[in-house]
Design a protein that fits this description.
By secondary structure, the chain is an all-alpha fold. The protein has one domain. The chain is globular. It has six helices and no strands.
Length: 109
C-alpha cells in the first residue's frame, strides 16, 4: 500500500528536519549535543543518532532550504518555544519545493 504524504513526512521528513537543525546548532552555533537536544526538546541520544546517521537518513542539498534550516536553528536557540512553528515552516518549504514528493518516488523505484 502506498504511503500518504503525511505518513512519509512523519517517518522520513521530520527526522531529516530535526537532524539538519541539530547539525546546524552544533556546527554553526557551537552548541553541544546536550544543548541542542534541550533546545529541540529531544533526548541527547536522539541527537547522537542524527549525527551518526542512524536517524534522519534523507540528505537535504537544496541551498535555500539549508539556509532556512540555519535560520530556524538560530531562532530556536534564541527561543526554544518556537520549535514546532519553525519545524512546520521548514516542512512547508520542503513540501512547496516538492522535496518529499521527489524523494518518495526515488524510494519506490
Amino acid at each position: 500500500m502506498k504511503r500518504t504524504p503525511c505518513e512519509y513526512i512523519i517517518w522520513k521528513g521530520l527526522p531529516a528536519i530535526r537532524k539538519e537543525i541539530a547539525e546546524s546548532m552544533i556546527k554553526n552555533f557551537g552548541l553541544s549535543q546536550r544543548e541542542a537536544a534541550d533546545k529541540l526538546g529531544i533526548t541527547p541520544s536522539a541527537v547522537c543518532q542524527y549525527l551518526s546517521n542512524k536517524r534522519g537518513h534523507i540528505v537535504i542539498n537544496d541551498e535555500l532550504i539549508l539556509k532556512e534550516i540555519n535560520n530556524a536553528a538560530k531562532t530556536i536557540i534564541e527561543n526554544k518555544d518556537v520549535v514546532i512553528s519553525e519545524t512546520c515552516r521548514i516542512c512547508k518549504i520542503l513540501q512547496s519545493r516538492e522535496i518529499f514528493f521527489k524523494l518518495e518516488i526515488c524510494n519506490e523505484e
